[in-house]
Amino acid sequence: MGQAVSRDDFMWTYSEQPHCSRREKIVKAHPEIKQLFGIDPSLKYVVSAAVLLQILACFLLKDADWTLVLLQAYFFGGVVNHSMTLAIHDISHNTVFGNSRPIANRFFGMWANLPIGVPISIAFKKYHVEHHRYLGEDGLDTDVPTELEAKLFTSSLRKFFWLFFQPLFYGFRPLILYKKAPTDLEILNVIVQFIFDGFILYYCGIKSLAYLIIGSLLAMGVHPSAGHFISEHYVFAKNQETYSYYGFWNLVTYNVGYHVEHHDFPYIPGRNLPLVRKIAPEFYDSLLVHNSWTYVLYQFVMNPAIGPYARIKRKARVAQQFEGNNVLDEYVEAFFTQLGYFKAREAVRSLVSNLSQQCARVFGKKKEI
């Protein structure tokens, strides 16, 4: 368990990511693939059923033994919550209500976020856009481990430790690599999540809240469903940056295993991704495919050629952007406009200004006398 990794640096390249050029070729060869773009009308029902299922599980586990709570968290609740993180991934591409209703998609992402226990939906969205646009670019793609992670977790035992705590590294990495100002929707996401957590704590107890949060942490660490974190972009074959998996875990992960197809066509809902490969097999049949996410995790731990350094990186094309969009501003402004707040404010300012002028004239005349 102590064999060190064979790499001491990332795999730097000066070529562009392959997905844009492949997308152009596929669309040219198979223009009918555009029919797969759009929304997944079933997604809101499937996600809502999963959220309600987790609330029911919280109620059923409120008086359970801690052993049962932990077992359920790993084998059931964690799988559902990991599924919710991937639903949020799909929702971040506006696949529920379409690109014309971005705010509706963001609010639905908060709904999907509830059973996870910690607020991630809005923050994930703003960083995931960069992951697609600037795949592997230094300081822009926070999916790539930090230099510190790559240097510290070099042996099999250390890599296993890194996998176990992967959700924490994944969550806090943007604060090191790419700091962005919190937006109004992020703050709302935190408020909504804390209200829900308080609801679960008050009505179901600490065990139920622990079931949600611990399940999320366990299922995104050393868990078969977490294999996609490694399988997607860690380099297992020379000159291949992204990898797909076509196994049964796709049934509960919104087809995130079809990851090459997803990066080629980010705005095709997960439900339709299998059809991409079916329509254009000549573009995918020659690529290496992972057959088991569990084996991917085993390879990551035991194979010295695979580790945090096994990622393709590029020089950043643009500078980091600290400021974000506070998209609720215009809605808040419209609300206060309807209430007449701004007219009342101007009237008060005008009244105060007139009173000040009159007082100045009165006091000025007294001084002259």
UniProtKB/TrEMBL annotation:
Residues 5-43 form the Sphingolipid delta4-desaturase N-terminal domain. Keywords: Lipid metabolism, Membrane, Oxidoreductase, Transmembrane, Transmembrane helix. One of its GO terms (molecular function) is sphingolipid delta-4 desaturase activity. It is found in: Membrane. Its EC number is 1.14.19.17. Signal peptide: none annotated. Belongs to the fatty acid desaturase type 1 family. DEGS subfamily. This is sphingolipid 4-desaturase.
